[in-house]
Structure formats: structure tokens, C-alpha cells
Amino acid sequence: MGQQPGSLEVMALMSGARTLCRACGGELAVTFADLGMQPPANAFLPPAADLQQEKRYPLRARVCGSCLLVQVDFDVPPRELFSNYAYFSSYSDDWLAHARRFSSMARERFALHAESLVVELGSNDGYLLKEFLAAGIPVLGIDPSDTVAAAAERIGVATLVEFFSAQLAARLAGEGRKADLIVGNNVLAHVPEVNDFVAGIARLLKPAGTVTIEFPHLLTLIEHAAFDTIYHEHFSYISLYAIERVFRLQGLQIYDVEELPTHGGSLRIFATHTSRALEESAALRSVRAAEGRAGLADLDTYRRFPERVAACRSALCEFLAHARSAGQVVAAYGAAAKGNTLLNFCGVTADDISMVADRNPHKQSKLLPGSHIPVVSPEELTRHQPDFVLILPWNLRTEIMRQLGGIRDWGGRFLTAVPTVRCYE
After folding, report:
1. Residues 290, 325: one domain?
2. What is the C-alpha to C-alpha distance for residues 217 and 238, in angstroms, rounded to an integer?
């Protein structure tokens, strides 16, 4: 048993609890996944840290009985999550290629030029905006993390170190900095006050402008039992069904959508001011229909999900116990947030997984939050020649297997754990 929280900790937990929907104010009626008490997924620890002082918070996703937005029911203060952020987009080759493709498409589709302005919300280390900048298109990044913003500034991407809000949008609009294109890739889920965020988009967007938002699709999360994508940084888990209502309330119309393979299955929505009354695309109608067939408007769909989460945990724990009894060494690759959710929910420690390798030097020589598994370089993992390498960011499995192809030279094998344990030769 761990230490019981003191009175100040209890007050902090109470202050972060939510009982009503962050979008519509409805009752959070159904538990979608209860993953226990966990530290923030990117709160890496130095080796000399006092592990007894590590903060843990409830990690539980619930469903609004009115608008069916899936959301965590406890908010960790955003400054604690994002002020010293360890995730840098530029360390994934596949994600960089995705950014280049988007930039090329957007420049042509929206006829962007030297007098346009592209604003990215959650711009990270400038991985995307540098593509527009290289084409002579003015850009502005907005990101609350000073660590990633500093990296963006070093490559010439002007970045405001602030949380995006309706108030900030009004300030920028008053300065004459309205956007022709607003981009938000994997940022909407990170927003605790979703209505204020979308209201800010409406204020910042030019009358004929477009906003594109990418987010992991709740439909694929459910289909693949990808509960590991639930963590404190992700306040919401988004379906088209739920997010269309939020956009409509702020005077924005979603008129098109693309289905993407990123993050195991994502949507990219295209929205503009409702006053433009654009025709809806066939793709948008198709996704609406797919969500309807999958039961995303039915609360019973969400009630069935916890059984699949429990089955995933059982499979991984059984595999690791068998490997230990057989004297086999298991390491992991990719110190990703989703991996930390998985490991902590399953109670995995350094006794089960010896190390996790990651290309990001900002994570190396630290300990994973909760499990306290040491983070090493890929070269260090290769030197130890483990029997198995568990790929934690399973959405990057192909890229990682390519990078670590030498594992086969010593007879090692790759595996993933979601939705169940699967080995790859």
C-alpha cells in the first residue's frame, strides 16, 4: 500500500475533479476506462529523484450522457503537464514526412502566398511551420512549452509561449494578425476548456479562412482497444459526432474530413465560418455514417469498453511473467506517453522490462514516470541484445522495426501489446 494523501493533496485532488461535461455541462454518466492513479505520462524523472514524492492523479475517462464527449474526469493543472515538455515532434521521421505532405497540400488547396498567415496551435518545435516558412509564407506558432518553443525559435519559427484561448485570439486579431489557415495537429484533445479554445479559433480566423484540426479518432480507439492513448494530457477523446456540436456552437462549420493512418487512426477536419455555407463533402457524410454504424451515439457502446481494457492488461502481464520465469530479457522502445499509460496500468516495473530506448536525448538518462524504467539510447539497447523489444508507440511500429532491424542478428523479436500481445519476427 502506498502512502495515503495528506489534507493538501486531498484538496488538490478535489479541485481537479470534474463531474460535468467540459463541452455541454451534461452529466458524466458512464465510465469508459478507469486506469487507476497514475503520474502525468510525460513527467520523466531524473535518476536521483525522490520516488516517494512522485505525484499521481486519477486517470479515468468518462462519457457525457448528453453530447457523448469522452473525457477524463480529473484535470491536472496544464502548467504541470506542458511547461517543461519532453515530446519533440522532429524525432519521428514518419511524422515529419506527414507534415511535409500536409504543407504541400495546404499551400495548393488554400492558395497560400507571401501575404498569407499560417498559425499553428500547439506548434511544438516548429516541425510543420518550417515547411511553410521555406515556401515564403509567414507563420506564427503558439505553444505553452518553453522547451519546444525555444527549439522552434532556433530554426526561425516565431513562437508565442502561451496557452491558446479566446482572449489571446482577440488580442492577435486586434493586432491585425488574423489567419488564412489555422492548424491544430493533435492539440484539441489537450485542451481542458474546449469551448473557449474553439471560440478562439473563430475569432482568429479570417472570414474566408480555414482551420484544419487533426485528432486521434475515437472510433479507431474503440475498435483497437487503444486505451493507452488515454492520459492526463488528453482531456478529451474525440468523435466527429461530438465535435461537430462544439464547432457549431462557435459559428464554425465542418465541411470536409480526411481519414488518416497517424496515431493508429485519426481524422483531419476542415472547418470555416458557418456564414460561408460551404457544401459538405461526401467524405464527411461517410464518416458520420461509419460512426452511426459503430454505435457512437449509443451509451452501451462505451459501457462495453472496460472489458477489453482488462483483457489487454491480463495478456501483457501473463507474457512478462512467462518471460521472467524463462530467464528471457524484455526491453522496450519508444518512451511515449501511451507506453507510460500501458505500463502503469499493468503495474510493470524495471524488474519486468529492463530498459526503454528512445532517440530523443531529452528523455535519455531519465526514468519513466511511475514504472521507473531507465531510458537509454537505441545504441545502448542494441548492446544489451534483449530477447524481446516491446514497441510502446505501436502506431510507429513499421518505422521502429526498420530502425532496429539488427535485432534479428541476435535472434531478438519485436512485440506490441495493444489490443493484445503480438510478436513479430
Report:
1. no
2. 6
Contact 255, 272 (CB under 8 A): yes
Separation of alpha carbons 272 and 270, rounded Å: 7
The 10s digit of each residue's pLDDT in 13-66 is 545 799 999 999 999 989 999 999 999 999 999 998 999 999 999 999 999 999
Which of 9, 67, 64 lies closest to 249, judged by CA? 67
pTM: predicted TM-score of the whole model, two decimal places: 0.87
**Sequence-distant (≥ 6) Cβ neighbours of residue 177 within 8 angstroms:** 117, 119, 140, 204
Q: Does any domain span residue 83?
A: no
The domain of 352 spans 315-424
Extended beta strands in 310-383, E state? 330-333, 356-357, 375-376
Contacts by residues 92-101 (CB-CB < 8 Å, ≥ 24 positions apart): 92/396, 92/399, 93/399, 94/396, 94/398, 94/399, 95/127, 95/262, 96/127, 98/260, 98/262, 99/127, 99/128, 99/131, 99/185, 100/131
Is residue 42 located within the same domain as residue 109?
A: no
Please report, for the domain that includes residue 262, its CATH number: 3.40.50.150
Q: Is 115 found in the same domain as 66? A: no
Work out the burial of residue 333: count CB atoms within 10 Å of its CB; fewer than 13 is exposed, 13-18 middle, 19 or more buried.
buried
Burial class (CB in 10 A: 0-12, 13-18, 19+), 360: middle
CATH code, domain with 322: 3.40.50.720
- Across 347-369, average pLDDT: 95
- Say if CB 65 and CB 255 are below 8 A apart: no
